[in-house]
């Protein structure tokens, strides 16, 4: 059973250890002091992706900012999640959402992939990183997923490590392919990646190219047409449940 | 294998049958004519929740509006989805999103439930209905979920039909309760409802009340804290996969 602290949770860059004093960024200090109205002595939680989660106390709160002092580690650093989440970037707001959801659902690597019908081919890595940090702060993650450089789908398939399964959601499945749980269970316990297509889906040539790879598995998410961000959460939920990521 | 039409898809109230002429609403006509720039003769898809899906042709396109004439039924009306989706309403934008996602994931009934930590207790049914129609148009659904009157959680539990399972996502599970798929599979094939709590989760008293009901099953969606709308999609994905809704 896990203890929930209601304290605000912040990602920082600095090393965390007992007694360490951490300078908070201006936006962090502003949020704690002016929005949440916290005072010197208030408890917050800190993580940096390496040293687990720390209970810390606000010190030196004044108009110029605030610092926090680490008190005790309340969760050790867990192993980084291994799931590779490959996705065709959507436009702006839906992209933020898609990134947030992938982080919440435990992706270890975010891999943008350009497909034939991908709308958004110019990604802003800083914006994606901001969405990643926000989601990690909110959902209690202790590791930030890494963001890989954007690849074309052909390149992704060429460079994919064959011992890792790549699951993709195909709207058009043959008879007998439609039991997603059975299909995933039969993959066993190897490492997994998932590929979520753009709003327009994959082209026939892309579906052909995917299906011709020995490491690719097609699954169905049912007879409804899901939006790409919904499909992402649904696919990750099934993969997490089967592989216990 | 399913044929995908790229034509715009509209929900209408009128009966659909061969040759029927359907008056489109002003917003529908505006969207087709001024946004999508469709002309007389263009193909669209119509559904009303009762008569399946129809291929129709735009006729009488002019400044005042447009009509459509039904040509042929391309999908028969399927049985209505049986899943009851009980949810604590979130605030505005996230509520729209949560409703859309539930529709996309195949909920048959939307049941708003007021819990102790529910923020939004004043629902606008017309707004929810608009989100439902938009989602149904986009995701190829032929039945609109019905929207039930808001209930308090205590009332929901008192009036719940005992032969239907009620699955809820509990962040705090005992040892051995954490295999969601196994838990769901063991329920067998009875009808199912799912209950998604508010952002603050359920109170201890509510968790107690839920767990004391013979028809309630608690599942875990993993060790991460999911936002309520993410939890909704994840839970529905597992339930759909297990029960083949």
Description:
The structure is a homodimer of 245-residue chains. With 245 residues, chain A is of the alpha/beta class. The first copy, chain A, has seven helices and twelve strands. Chain A has helices at residues 26-35, 92-104, 125-139, 153-159, 180-185, 204-211, 228-243, and strands at 9-11, 21-23, 43-47, 53-62, 65-75, 84-87, 109-114, 146-147, 151-152, 165-169, 192-196, 216-219. In chain A, the strands form two sheets. In chain A, strands 6, 7, 8, 9, 10, 11 and 12 form a seven-stranded parallel beta sheet that branches. A five-stranded mixed beta sheet of chain A has the order 1-3-4-5-2. In chain A, a hairpin with a 5-residue loop joins strand 3 and strand 4 (53-62). In chain A, helix 2 (92-104) packs across helix 3 and helix 2 packs parallel to helix 7. Chain A is elongated.
Describe this protein with a few key phrases.
alpha/beta, 5-stranded mixed β-sheet, 245 residues, homodimer, 12 strands, elongated, 7 helices, 7-stranded parallel β-sheet
Itemize the secondary structure elements and their pairings.
Two copies of one chain form a homodimer.
Chain A: E1 9-11, E2 21-23, H1 26-35, E3 43-47, E4 53-62, E5 65-75, E6 84-87, H2 92-104, E7 109-114, H3 125-139, E8 146-147, E9 151-152, H4 153-159, E10 165-169, H5 180-185, E11 192-196, H6 204-211, E12 216-219, H7 228-243
Parallel strand pairs in A: 1-3, 6-7, 6-11, 7-8, 7-9, 10-11, 10-12
Antiparallel strand pairs in A: 2-5, 3-4, 4-5
Helix pairs in contact in A: 2-3, 2-7
């Amino acid at each position: 059973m896990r203890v929930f602290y209601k304290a605000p949770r912040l990602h920082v860059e600095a090393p965390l250890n007992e007694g360490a004093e951490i300078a908070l960024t201006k936006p962090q200090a502003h949020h704690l002091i002016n929005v949440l109205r916290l005072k010197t002595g208030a408890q917050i939680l800190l993580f940096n992706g390496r040293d687990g989660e720390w209970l810390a106390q606000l010190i030196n709160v004044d108009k110029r900012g605030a610092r926090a002092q680490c008190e005790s580690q309340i969760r050790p650093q867990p192993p980084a999640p291994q799931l590779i989440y490959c996705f065709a970037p959507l436009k702006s707001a839906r992209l933020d959402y898609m990134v947030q959801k992938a982080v919440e659902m435990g992706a270890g690597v975010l891999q943008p992939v350009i497909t034939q019908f991908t709308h958004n081919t110019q990604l802003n890595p800083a914006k994606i990183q901001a969405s990643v940090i926000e989601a990690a702060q909110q959902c209690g993650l202790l590791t930030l997923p890494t963001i890989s450089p954007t690849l074309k789908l052909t390149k992704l398939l060429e460079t994919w490590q064959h011992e890792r399964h790549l699951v993709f959601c195909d709207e058009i499945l043959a008879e007998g392919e439609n039991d997603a749980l059975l299909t995933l269970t039969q993959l066993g316990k190897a490492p997994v990646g998932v590929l979520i297509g753009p709003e327009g889906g994959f082209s026939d040539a892309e579906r052909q190219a995917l299906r011709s790879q020995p490491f690719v598995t097609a699954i169905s998410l049912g007879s409804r047409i899901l939006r790409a961000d919904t499909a992402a959460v649904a696919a990750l939920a099934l993969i997490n449940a089967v592989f216990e990521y």
